[in-house]
What does this fold into?
Amino acid sequence: MRKTLADRIIRYHVLTDVLLWAALCLPVLWAGLTSAEEAYTGWETAAGLLLVGGAVALGRSVPPASMLLALTLWEASVVSRGETTLGIAPFLPAAVVMSYLAGVRMTRSRPGVLGLAGATALTALLVPALTRDLGAGFVAVVGVALFGAVPWLTGRGRHQHLELARSGWERAEQLERAQQIIADQARLRERARIAGDMHDLLGHELSLIALRIGGLEVAPGLDARYRDAAGEARRAVTVASERLQEIIEVLRDDSLPSSPDLPGESVAELVGRARASGVPVEAHGLREGGAREGRRLAPMVERAVHRVVQEALTNAVKHAPGAPVTVRLDHLADETVVTVTNGAPPAHPASGHPGGRGREGLPTGGDHGRDHGREGPAPREEHRREGLIATGEHRREGLIAGGGYGLIGLAERVRLCGGTLRAERRGGGFELAVRLPHVPGPAGGSRIPSPSAARLGEARRRVRRARTLAVGAALATCAGAAVAVSGFMAYDTVTSALPAADFDRLRVGQDRAGVEAVLPARPRADAAGRPGPPVPAGAECLHYGKHRDPFAERRGDLYRLCFRDGRLVGKDFLPAAWPPPAVARQETAR
It folds into this structure.
């Protein structure tokens, strides 16, 4: 897998370097193919293409050498061709691009600074000496500064930005790993708590078995052989109970206080204690009067339902004191759905603002809970006495957004029961929804994503959206410009067409007003600079199209009308390709 990824990265780098080399070679090819007198010779063009390829090849392994080679090529061009277009343009893109890439790719600034300083010094000494022209030396020195130093500094700024972003992501990954360790600890604590629950359930059942066997052992009239067998069975059950106790002692986390749960407490009794403590709880699907909830559930599922409601009430009181809470139990054919929803905390009596919001915008108690405690019954203190928020366990295990890991531990219990857990903000409050199968199956996926992972994912989505938006905006701009230009060219062609019959009726010397009577509404806008026969001295010339079809092959054919002193002094037909093989028609005032 790693080898495949490395091969893909190498292929990507090779492809991008080849494309970059091809783009930087275009100006060099132009310098060799142009018809100018000072065009590059064949060997100069070939040498330039090879040296540009060498600069691109060195760009990743030795960035300073790549930059200096590109600048040397540009200076050599200036020395050989002077301050002309053919002296400056061919290697200018290579110098700018390779200097920028060197700034981005270099890990240290010192080699780049020394290289640019040395290049500037050598340029100031060698170019005037070779060209015998101080102006060429000045141009070369300024060129090293503008086309070498400025792009390199821009690249260094980009490098620093990338380094800061990389360091930020590395720090986020470290925090993510640390948070994952803490979350794993929370899950382990929940597993230890589940082990304790198993001990209570199995220990009770084993005690009943031992008691029944003991009764059988002392039963009158029992044969001695069966009495001995019953005694052995009782002792085996007792040993099994002791071994179970030893295992639980090994798994138990002594740093956690004992659970505040009341033995055998039902969800209805838990909700009743919460109401008695002043929490506005509305319950649906529960049996009143402390009866068990509907049909009998498996012990582990029943304990999980109790823990879900207990954790949700704890978090609601802690993070949204005074907010109404709704507990709903839906017993379906194969599963039980537990939904606990709390609304937004009520407005602060002094400021009118709701209770504060913790990290990620989730409700937190903040100062509101303390003020509420001074004004009336303190729900949090009452709940501590009642056991709902009795221990440091719940202070450490609150909502994830509040810095605790209660939901993570709860998700682990639900997962081990084969259920699913969903926790999310809902209308200013919070909703916890759990689905628990009646017959515990394979462990499901009730993991709660950590805030740092969510922030990292959101940041990456923003980057992707911004990149997609930038590319889309660029494409839309290009498409819009192309449509606008094409539309204007079509409009220009249609509205500036002069029929051939009308052009033939025009005569040199004719009054301008009479000529304009047969002309289109506007002249051709894109005809400026069109070559043609000499313009009569002092004349003003207008161009009109010959064809109305903007997609015609001969769309570029034009008529030229020249006016002077209010009269037509010249009329010419200008074919798209000038000069034509033979002049089609020309009349000029003499």
Q: What stands out?
A: The CA atoms of residues 176 and 512 lie 83 Å apart.
